[in-house]
Amino acid sequence: MGGAEDRFDIVVVGAGPVGLSFAASLAQSQLKVAVVEQNSIDTLANPPFDGREIALTHASIRILREIGAWDAIPASDKSPLHGARVLNGSSPFALRFDPPSGSGEPLGVLVPNCRIRDALFKTIHLQNHARLLCGHSVVDATTSQTGAVVTLSDGVQLNASLVVAADSRLSATRDLLGIGADINRLGYSMLICRVRHERAHHQVAIEWFDHHQTIAMLPLAEGVSSLLLTLCSNEADRLLAFSDHLFLRELTNRCRGRLGKMTLASKRHAYPLVTTWAHKFQAPSAALIGDAAIGMHPVTAHGFNIGISSQKQLAYGILTACRDGREIADPDMLHGYERWLRLSAAPLFHGTNIVVGLYSSEHPAARLARHVGLRFAQHVPFMRHGISAMLRR
Predict the structure, then answer these.
(1) Cα torsion at 83, 84, 90, 91 (round to 10°)?
(2) How far is CA 225 from CA 24, 259, 311, 332, 365, in A?
(3) Which residues neighbour 149 within 8 Å (Cβ) at sequence distance 6 or greater?
(4) Which end of the chain is more exposed for a tag (fewer CB within 10 A), N or C?
(5) Secondary structure E strands in 126-268
(6) Of 184, 236, 207, 211, nearest to 361 (Cα)?
(7) What DSSP string runs through 249-297?
(8) Which residues contact 53 (CB under 8 A, 6 or more apart)?
């Protein structure tokens, strides 16, 4: 029998942004929460720069503000996004996304992933309802209608009413719970670095689908952008091994001088691209949030935002169940959460995969289709305005 110190209402596996924000969303309750993380407490307290800039929608910003994390992010790390352009090959035509005229607000805000992690860690540390259990992995997890038992790598068993998996798109906890997933290893990698450049970006992002590559230029401080280059994994590895001088020369050639002369402003990072869609988002006394449920392709920059909204929805369901005197792992609540996430995320997930397939194909018909598609979208206002509104929700 475990002691009282090993009994929790909820065990969250994974202290990434979604896992930590979920724990923070429960702060106003009396629930006892454990957050299990395989990294050390020092790594959580001092998250290293990993190259990733997160394009936060206004909805995600509201959630971060509600849980006290938004104001913990320095203003200097918040870069407004005043527009976006989508380019296809050498065509001068660009599909434009801009804020509504007169709104005075950006489409969204770019924030380094490490700064979001740092702010959420500080938020959790100021609360006393959540206990961080760092330096441990989960080696077993069993659930039933009456609760969950989670076994850690040091042999400690945690008993809970609900276990929540938030441990990445290749979630080990999801596997332990017996929940399958469609996992697509795309064979591509995203190479990311910050660059200083001589041409102004005017706080406008560029997504450029070119032959055998996709380039995204995300505007940060004046004269600085985050540059994301998506290539076949072996080609990305080749560029990663280049010296800084050779890499910059290659980068300038690939960007066709759009940013002018460039210098490196950070180390380079590379991430293999994998998409996932869990077959279920819940099970008896268990739920999946964030990438453990849905791992989006990064081309639309919406994976983080879907993850943040999924934790908010699950937390809301739990708090409502508590208020109504029901169990926090109430089956009807968990099924309702799954329906909501499936309906809200499926169109974007599958639509993104279709776009990626179209824009990564080098077949002449595909090149023509994407050129026509961009021009068609530009002249159908509800498509452009709908996407812009989605960014602002």
Answers:
(1) -70
(2) 31, 9, 30, 46, 33
(3) 140, 141, 142, 143, 157, 158, 159, 160
(4) N
(5) 130-134, 138-144, 147-152, 157-165, 181-197, 204-210, 213-219, 224-232, 262-264
(6) 211
(7) HHHHHHTTTTT-SEEE-S--EEEEEEEEEES-SEETTEEE-GGGTEE--
(8) 79, 110, 111, 112, 113, 218, 220, 226
pTM of the shown model = 0.89
Q: What is the mean pLDDT of residues 186-192?
A: 94
Q: How far apart are the first and last CA of the chain?
A: 47
Res 367: pLDDT: 54
Spatial distance between the Cα atoms of 249 and 334, rounded to a whole number of angstroms: 52
Let me know how many helices (H) and strands (E) the chain has, helices first.
11, 20
The pLDDT of residue 180 is above 70: yes
Q: What is the pLDDT of residue 268?
A: 97
Beta bridge partners of 88: 209
- Give 47's DSSP letter: P
Q: Which secondary structure element, helix H or strand E, spans residue 61, and what is its range?
A: helix 58-66
Q: Which tens digits make up the pLDDT trace of 252-305?
A: 999 988 899 999 999 999 999 999 999 999 999 999 999 999 999 887 678 899
Looking at every residue in the chain, the average pLDDT score rounds to: 88
Secondary structure class of 99 (helix, strand, coil) = coil
Q: Evaluate whether 169 touches 276 at the Cβ level (below 8 Å).
A: yes
Of 114-123, 174-183, 205-214, the poorest mean pLDDT is in: 205-214
Q: Which of 188, 189, 171 shows the shortest CA–CA distance to 180?
A: 171
What's at 194, amino acid-wise?
R
